[in-house]
Amino acid sequence: MKLADDEKAMRDGAEGDAVAAAMDLLIRYGEGLGAERLCDTRNVAGTMAQPSPAKEILVRQGGWNKSYAVINLDCDDDITIPKMRVPTCQLQMGFGQADAEAVKPYSPHLVELQEDGEAFYAEHGVTILATCTPYQVGNLPLRGEHCAWMESSAVVYCNSVLGARTNCEGAASTGAASLTGKIPYWGNHVPENRYGTHLVDATIPVKGFQDWGMFGYFVGGAVQEARPVIRGDWQQPDLADIKHFGAAAATSGGIELFHIPGITPEAPTIEAAFGGKPIGEPIFFGERERRAVYEELNGIGSSTDVDFILLGCPHASLDQIARLARAIEGRSLNAGTELWIMTPRALRSVADRNGYTEIIQRAGGKVLTDSCPAMSKAVPDGTRVFATDSAKQAHYLAAIMNIEAWFGTLEECVDAAVTGKWNGHLA
Ligand code: F3S
User: Which end of the chain is more exposed for a tag (fewer CB within 10 A), N or C?
Assistant: First the structure.
């Protein structure tokens, strides 16, 4: 790999052992990928402070310096971690103290470990956004900006909606990027690698949040890790629709970048999205495909007695919280059914201020932050059947927690929360 002078100096220890270890890791990683060089980044999103049993062992051995060295830099030496060199934010983590009570069964021990890690990383310059949607709470890279982000739903949003550039990074590469301001220049960083590969034609109107999730789930399954260009007839989607579309596409496939001409920044037209290259036969999304996705996402539900409703995957926007508050105002949850909505902590404080949290809590629901059931492997005690409006959670949580899943609209989820019965159907 060809290194610039500042990169050679970092590799050779001019900025200390930890930065040298970070540069060593990036060189090994980049060479493994076939990258010819590194590029500068000033936007890193990783999961340093997320607690885990492996981190706990390392923290006992040598504190958070040791944990960062081993997990984030692949280095066994005793090194001291300096402040982050470039803006770095913490993505989703475990539930915090404020919510620990609400998500029982939950380990107070892990909460303490997390608080300890959070303090360490905050001191080292990591912004504790604690969300899978950093773009909803102030981390909005500009078009063309090179980033180093983890979390598949955030990566696809970063590339496709913001037009910034990131691969789907891991704990080690983000750990190294934050100390060096560098990341291998390959994959989605390279303009030629960002053109569309497959045309997907929606032959039916795509209307609203549920449809965008099902459409995304279909597209991911159809093109896997390629770069779809989407054509169709829809009402203008909003942030929540597009967030749901991308998260679902990154769940059923490995999509990191899609183009919707007229909506996403790099695709003013279909032709531009393909970079002038020949466009192959389209893949069609019609009523049959829509129904097949719906049936797949509802394929594991058998009991209509619902114990748990989960909303806010990816973490809910303020508008989604407001919609829930409107739908549930004046109603009460069924005894024995829980409702959680996940959101970034910064948005919950606005929801508190606007009275949405109080409305949801008065009905018996909970507005939780920092984490989610899939990340924390935490659902209400005794949950056997859950319902969600998120294609991603319907896909993952059922498998992770070995529970049954129903997928439907917000209104159907609220109805199930109030009655304890699932009564969803595809409109
Ligand atoms: Fe976020 Fe958890 Fe969904 S991290 S994208 S709410 S699985």
Answer: C
